[in-house]
């Protein structure tokens, strides 16, 4: 009888594991085939060979790239080279990506940049916020951008218990931001378990020097984050749920759910989807970000190349 019970429990456990595995494959779209949609005027950006996970563009056309992201289990074409921040002036006739120098005293050897965001203060000071994973930990770095010298002055490193697995960031002040945690846990095994069991414990955190709090939660894997031009709405991409959440920003900086879009036209009553570019891996692998400025499209990737297109 005992052996029969043990065998029954084993069968139930295996069935549950099998169901979770198939559900995870479906959430990851592991068997999906991508049909390429090309643009006529595109070229790979020279100097970006090992990923450009995030891109942010200033109103004057200066584009920032975070490059060289490394994670356990993530392929890298430059495993021994630290990450960096590159810049491209999109107003130039033939824009080139140049690496920005960073002030002395900042630990460049362990620099592992992920999501980035810029903020322009009332006095026109430009701040660059960078999600950093030194030795696979989680920090947010704040830099001041010195345009004349193509230089980043490191101002502050932020660590907090509510930022255990930071993915992306959107700056809303000189030391204020919203950040996504793509997992609740920081431990790699617990992260895997959280994803496998589809616990929906990922969240969005608001940080300021005076207050740090969770302002939205219940995501499968909160990933990219951005803000509307009028600063009233925050958009959060839940990558495993294949949804974009539209959240309304409150006076106390909390976020309230407005609607969920399946990659649709923001805030319209009848959202539509237009695929501008798609590739089956022959040009780009693991695309993670797209940004547009004045008829120019930039596409970045987790660990591969970056693409510049004229729309």
UniProtKB/TrEMBL annotation:
Enzyme Commission number, as recorded: 3.1.1.2
Subcellular compartments: Membrane
Bilayer topology: Peripheral membrane protein
Signal peptide start-end: 1-15
Keywords from the named record: Calcium, Disulfide bond, Glycoprotein, Hydrolase, Membrane, Metal-binding, Signal
Cofactor comment: Binds 2 calcium ions per subunit.
Catalyzed reaction equations: an N-acyl-L-homoserine lactone + H2O = an N-acyl-L-homoserine + H(+); a phenyl acetate + H2O = a phenol + acetate + H(+)
InterPro entries linked to this entry: 6-blade_b-propeller_TolB-like, Arylesterase, Paraoxonase2, Serum_paraoxonase/arylesterase
Pfam families, A to Z: Arylesterase
Family stated for the protein in its record: Belongs to the paraoxonase family.
Subunit structure: Homotrimer.
Record-given protein name: Paraoxonase
Protein's organism: Galeopterus variegatus
Name of the gene this protein is made from: PON2
